[in-house]
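**Fold tokens**
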Amino acid sequence: MPGALALRPPEMVFDLPASGRRLIQGATGYRMTIKSGTVMFEDGEPTGALPGRVLRGPQSAPAI
């Protein structure tokens, strides 16, 4: 039901290498998140399942 969905306030986290920062924002009202037929989140909690793989764009050649 779309009326039950809501966003949580944004939060800055410093969990990247070299204390890099990123902005995250959770949501409420979702029952499950499913990827490749595997439940990844249930009632907002991670199940520990990590199906799939990281997708990366083109990478620059290292500077010499």
Remarks:
- Residues 45 and 54 are 21 Å apart (CA to CA).
